[in-house]
Amino acid sequence: MIPAQFDYVRPGDLDETLAILKDREGDAKLLSGGYSLIPLIKLRLAQPALLVDLRDVTGLDGIVETDDYLRIGARATHRQIHEADVVRDNYPLLHDVTATIGDPQVRNWGTIGGSVAHADPASDWPAALIAGNATIVCRSQSGEREIASRDFFLDTFQTAIEPTEVLTEIRVVRRPRASAGAYEKLERKVGDFATVGVAAIVWLDDAGHIKRAGIGLTGVAETPFAATDAEAVLLGNAPSDDLFRAAGAAAGAQSRPFGDVRGPVDYKRAMAAELTLRALRRATERALASA
Amino acid sequence: MTTQHITVSVNGEAHEADVEPRLLLVHFLRDDLGLTGTHVGCDTSNCGACTIHVDGVSAKSCTMLAVQADGRELKTIEGMASEPTLHPLQQAFWDQHGLQCGFCTPGMIMQAAWLLAENPDPDEAEIREGISGNLCRCTGYVNIVKAIQQAAGELSAAESAPVVAAGTVDGQEVSAEPAAAG
Predict the structure, then answer these.
(1) What is the CATH number of domain B4-79?
(2) For chain A, how long is the longest CA-to-CA vector?
(3) Within its chain, how far is the Cα of A279 from the centroid?
(4) Which ipTM did the prediction report?
(5) Which 64-103 residues of chain A touch chain B by CB within 8 A?
(6) Residue A5 has what DSSP assignment?
(7) Which CATH code of 1.10.150.120, 2.60.40.10, 2.60.120.10, 3.90.980.10 fits the domain covering B88-160?
């Protein structure tokens, strides 16, 4: 497949990048790893007039834990995140996600910022970011803007990023004691997009009740979303399989899947419920282990 | 639309070219450089037949633009053997019957080479995970896994072999490199 023609530019830093985006507002697409964008331009589903390659832009990488959050630079590859000690040791949900995205070659080159900005309705990262109430940070010439992950994914391949903005980093809330997350993904075959993906986070209080919960679903609506009904079912209750089953039912009911090659609507709803149950079970086991 | 001037090293040889930004790296390798060992299988980033190394990291060359390779070092299947000796992975695929039609083989070998560089002693599950981005429609993967296991053994044996100090032995010049290092 041959992409349509486009121009290409490789700015040397972020300021130059932002100036190009301002100058060519609406014409330009940012190129990071390319593993989401290039398949789209090959299919000519996207036909940008200009590709702006971020390869030489420094300051967009790095995975660092601050007092408040885990900062993941937008150009960190899935593999770099997977292999970061801090992620392996403290963020099991993120580690689950990086283990299941695409395949090794995709993880070698694909970046979290590219994947999130692309906003495929069945991609893995958004579910985890939504479950954890992560913050997505964008920069334009007028400054930095923080966007809550729950306000970020607007529709299929559509996000809250403005055409003049660059997604610079993701901030994941620092994991407290007695909390943990897990990601469950159903795929037809290894490396496939999720038929259904569920990220769940539970945070237990001293009495062992759920004081906060976050659930993000992917693959079962026009865009990844927060299963707020399921979160409400969990709040203040002692974890149990019955409770998780009820939360799963709520998540399935809140899903709006399309029937397609990965299965009919009823099947996807049922799988959303089942995977929510499994993700909650595993997250709770991990939270108890860290209490 | 303006062309871009790129400089790439492919299998140790420098190449310069003016390319359209939309030119895919795999087409640059095959059509411009004539390196047709790298195959286009699915053309949708799924099958891994086009796998090469870019700065030592495995990549699907159908999902990369030639302009993205500017200034980088590429390695393709043509760069694996040191004539007349096959690379241990190539020999192992032969020995273990790790191919039937052979279409996936260049990508499979390049991915396996990257895997073994990262993890010289992978177990079967790690091998299967490592080649999960490469599809084979003939073999059922069993012999491919065996071939990678054979090559892993040979490569690590070569790695751990005592290195002969450079100098002369019986009047012959010898290098400091282990003979079978891949």
Answers:
(1) 3.10.20.30
(2) 61
(3) 16
(4) 0.94
(5) 102-103
(6) P
(7) 1.10.150.120
